[in-house]
Amino acid sequence: MEDSADRIAQPWGTRVPYGRHETWPARVDTFLADGVDPGAVQRWVQSASILHSDGDAMDVAVADGRMVGVRGRDVDRVNRGRLGPKDLFGWQANASRDRLTRPLVRRDGRLVETDWDTAMDLVASRSRELLDERGPGSIGFYTSGQLFLEEYYTLTVLARAGIGTNHLDGNTRLCTSTAAEALKETFGCDGQPGSYDDFDHADVIALFGHNIAETQPVQWMRLLDRLGGADPPRLLCVDPRPTRVAQHAAVHLAPRGGTNVALLNALLHETIRHERIDRDFIAAHTVGFEELADRVADCTPKWAADICDVPAARIEEAAELVGTTDALVSTALQGVYQSHQATAAAVQINNLHLIRGMLGRPGAGLLQMNGQPTAQNTRECGANGDLPGFRNWQNDTHVADLARVWNVEPETIPHYAPPTHAMQMYRYAEQGSIRMLWISGTNPAVSLPELPRIRSILTQDRLFTVVQDLFLTETAQLADVVLPAATWGEKTGALTNADRTVHLSDKAVEPPGEARPDLDIFLDYARRMDFRDKDGGPLVTWDDPESAFEAWKRCSAGRPCDYTGLSYAKLRDTSGIQWPCDESAPQGTARLYTDGISWAHPDLCESYGKDLETGASQEVVEYRSLNPDGKAVLKAAAYRPPHEEPDEEYPFQLTTGRTIYHFHTRTKTGRAPQLRDAAPDVWVEISTADADRLGLGEGDLADVTSRRGSLRGRLRVTGIRPGLLFVPFHYGYWDTENGSGPGPDTPGRAANEATITDWDPASKQPLFKTATAALTLVERGGGRPSPAPTTTASAPATAGVARPTAGGSAAHTAQTPTEFPHGREEGAQ
Low complexity bias: where (predicted)? Predict the structure, then answer.
């Protein structure tokens, strides 16, 4: 069937109910540009989405050399033809008039157009100067979660074996590094155990800090279709906001920010106390159960209720829900990953599955979700700093094996210390040891925490900054060299989603002007730098996407993420295959760990683990003593209070997040008219209890201020938990008069003006959900609604607030501010 719903007003479209253990029926979603008749489409080109981590398969419509629309691929296992709003409308940004079409270089303080040779010669000459004067540690690379596998792998080779730097990370550090770390802590290796297909078989689905309705909208369609069918699943939602998931949940818990470990320890306590555990599975496949049981022995629901500010009875209901089902699927995302004790909390979700034996069979699976479309590729290829193919940087045999693949000496590959994570890279740049930073496909001047600090780092004269992107982003405006990149639909490459499904995205149209694919830019740099292997031959031996993919296959051979059974021809023929895919599994692998824990052995594992409180890497001797046979590790964690808690001056907790209509810093979605108009400007969510207590109303203009900075937005009064403010993180400055950031007399707009420089000790993921803030009234709304959507978790608590169809900046001339009373009603919920 096809869907004819207004996909802005009805983001999840129409329902096709189906029952448990049945196959999800197909529904083909299509959008063509105004005036384009289906018969006018000359070609449909295979692809998959790059605007979230679902991996929704689609075909791109081409007419007269232009993209004119998209449609879902009904044969694909991931989405069965469905597309979310960003999929349907986001492609229009490719044809924006403000695309970068020529390289830019900074001359006399201004960015001016130049040719590719001039720009790349400048980048290469600066690289050589720094290598000669300061060594490889003076150069860092910060990449994306939106490039293709072939591009990440090439970047990794030239950075790790060409330059020889340990400073390579992706903005996946902001969204998915905790997922990777939690999987390594528990299973010894990265790799998603479960599959989206587990949603078809689950009896209970627990979503921890995961607003799946807006972050993976097509999988929410899948859950909605199951909820409408026979034997529907029961949902557990852990989220401080009244999300669509919460509205459909059998149990909804809205804990105080930063208390996830306390809540999860109480769930583990109840599960063990009631003997809702699989002792045979625990004995056969895990180590550490006695320590875990001892750690949570006193973590009663009442204990957790006092910490989390949720009723103990509701915690008991949640424990019964997850503890008595025969088929449990759990998912986690930023409500866990970007909050206090991130890795410790994510590991406790793993522990819950292990002690229940809920692993490796249909309907019993873990999905430590990703936030970006190709975050999994960043991790596999080593562009997040880890070694490619999930090799262990502490294992000399693994390093030697990688050196063999690259034909370099092992000492060429930096492995003397843990890979440098993004937040540390910016610290090194701040201190002056990193003197060149190459940023590709990401916008840290909006997306990193504490933006005043980030802008001060990027504007240092001594830091040479290269930005490779589609538009003149807030970050690109601060660069010394700007390289115009091609994007999705304008180049070919593979991309892997959150449940290990590999898709091929074929080139549909030519990029605008002189813009080049990221792969071509990296290959050009490698040639200009003349990187060589140990025999004097070229270090990078491939010259196009397919040959790069074949090179990656050789690197992945025999590793957990084995791609050797895949090829471009096979991916074009079958539309989406889950790795590992090799001779023993030529059609791919739906679930990992169906026959035990396969990659946790000390000789095979990607990591020996870390101390969850300090982040210190454990040594092989310690790991081998704990886990000589390579089982899953049940790693306990004690609750610790957040580093910053509300006080008289900053009485609110501040959290950030997404809306379904936008992606990251809106560089693409803000240029698609339907998406732009659905959520045109920043807003601030406040609870009804706090709004009533403070005399605030819908649409009031307010400043949110922390110890780091402030932003201004109109209030949306919702059912969010009292004491908490929510601000979407998508909004920067490129579409304002300021362009690159707030001025002395212009208020901030980006959520990260106010967030804190803090990160999880194990995963090094920034903690965007742990700041505290104060609220100051600027002017009354006067009946003007907030620009927040009414169709999502941002829906107003008061009926009659219309969703705006267009809008602009929420910044207005400030009136005399009114300071609100400090504090909040204790125990309000």
Answer: 789-800
Residue 331 half-sphere exposure, CB side, CA atoms within 13 Å?
31
Tokens linked to 218:
């097509």
Instruction: Give every CB contact of residue 743 below 8 A, 6+ residues apart in sequence.
Output: none
C-alpha distances in Å from residue 489, one per residue of 100, 191, 494, 517, 660: 16, 27, 12, 10, 22
CA–CA distance from 814 to each of 650, 703, 713, 747 (Å)?
21, 10, 12, 9
Peptide bond into 673 cis (omega under 30): no
Contacts of 629 (CB under 8 A, 6+ apart): 601
Q: Which tokens is 144 given?
A: 């994306």
Distances (CA, A) of 186 to 100, 264, 346, 631: 44, 16, 10, 9
- A 10 A CB-CB count for 609 gives 24
pLDDT tens across 270-282, in order? 999 999 999 999 9
pTM above 0.85, yes or no: yes
pLDDT of residue 800: 55
Please report how many Cα atoms fall inside a 13 Å half-sphere around the Cα of residue 690, on the Cβ side.
31
The pLDDT assigned to 799 comes to 58
**Packed helices 312-324 and 301-308: angle between N→C axes, nearest 10 degrees:** 120
**Mean pLDDT for the chain overall:** 94
Ramachandran quadrant class, 558 (left: phi over 0; alpha: psi -120 to 50; beta: rest): left
Model pLDDT for residues 542-580, shown as the tens digit of each residue: 999 999 999 999 999 999 999 999 999 999 999 999 999
Q: How many CB atoms lie within 10 A of CB 599?
A: 19
Q: Which residues are CB-contacts of 662 (< 8 A; sequence separation ≥ 6)? A: 86, 669, 670, 675, 679, 728, 730
**Which residues on neighbouring strands pair with residue 208, listed in sequence order?**
238, 332
| DSSP for residue 361 | B
Mean pLDDT by 10 residues, the chain (829 residues): 85 97 97 95 97 96 98 97 98 97 97 98 98 98 97 98 97 95 98 97 98 98 98 98 98 98 98 98 98 98 98 98 98 97 98 98 96 95 94 98 98 94 98 98 97 97 98 97 98 98 98 98 98 98 98 98 98 95 97 96 98 96 97 98 96 98 96 97 98 97 97 98 98 88 88 97 96 97 93 86 37 32 27
CA–CA–CA angle 206, 209, 210 (5° rounding): 70
Q: Are 630 and 601 in contact (CB under 8 A)?
A: yes
List helix spans (H) across 65-189: 85-90, 116-133, 149-156, 177-187
Q: What is the C-alpha end-to-end distance of the chain, expressed in Å?
A: 43
Q: Which residue has the tokens 């197909």?
A: 26
- Residue 46 forms beta bridges with which residues? 59
DSSP state of 378: H
User: What percent helix, strand, coil does the chain show, rounded to 5?
Assistant: 30, 20, 50
Angle between helices 312-324 and 260-273 (to 10 degrees): 60
Q: Sheet holding 436-440: strands in order across?
A: 110-113, 104-107, 481-484, 464-469, 436-440, 139-143, 168-170
b/e per residue 85-98 (b: at least 16 CB within 10 A) = bbbbbbbbbbeeee
For residue 738, the model assigns a pLDDT of: 78
Q: Quick one: three-class SS letters along 175-214?
A: CCHHHHHHHHHHHCCCCCCCCHHHHHCCCEEEEECCCHHH
d(CA 639, CA 259): 8
Alpha-carbon gap, residue 394 to 201, rounded angstroms? 39
pLDDT score for 12: 98
Concatenating the DSSP letter of every residue in 480-535 gives SEEEEB--TTSS-EEEE-TTSEEEEE---SPPSTT-B-HHHHHHHHHHHHT-B-TT
Tell me the three state secondary structure of residue 353: helix
